[in-house]
Amino acid sequence: MTAIQPCALLLLVGPDWQMEAVSANVSMLSDVKPSALIGQPLADLIGSKAIHSLRNRMSWLSGEDSEVRDFGVQWGDVLLDVRASRDDDRYLIEAELAVEPRLPDGIGMVRSMTDRLAGRDAAKLAELAMRQLCSLTGFDRLSLCDRHGAIVATAGRQLAATEGQPSEALPRNCADRDAEPVAVLGDAPSALLERAAFLALSDSEKNRLESLGAAASMTLPIRIDGEQVATLHAHHPAPRRCGAERRSVAHLFAERVAARMARNGWAF
How much of the chain is helix, strand and coil, in % rounded to 5? Predict the structure, then answer.
């Protein structure tokens, strides 16, 4: 059975904008029984204004590998950060409960953090970047690993840095290793659902985090010109979820750092 973490809700929408699958916690948006929403228009759940904004945002999707985000979206009485992607003519929508207000200037933050990087030594650049990312995200330990899983740079405290971290092609988040998973109802293609960032953890994933002493994690694939060259791993000893916009800032900054490292001789 497919399941998602309770901090986010999941919707699978068909080409006619009717809901084909929903996570059981979608009840936070409506008094209607979640299973009764399957086959109904998405507009009936989130309202005409929200559906108009969402469809406009979806028009930015350039292909099956692309995704769009929107932060601080009001659906009913709930404030959410939304992430969406598509496969053929279906859309996968993840909406997580917002944990902080909108950042005043996310792009400005990336520029400021980049300006603080000095020198041309790739290893030193990575080390300086990891320190900034620890401060930005609030995670206890961050590691930048190359495409083979070897650590390039790490920063933080308490949690030990470990070699052999898995390379992920998609963003993955675990807010609470021990949180009770929420079932996804309906008929949903597994390949599309596998792209959800907040999928419930498998037993092996839980065991791996437990062995690291981590209750929360964040994994971001780092690409240069579309090619994955590294992975950013973050771990925390207690449950934690970095806000979606803050994660996006961290991701953009990390990719800019990787590109700068490559220009200065880093063989990824």
Answer: 30, 30, 40
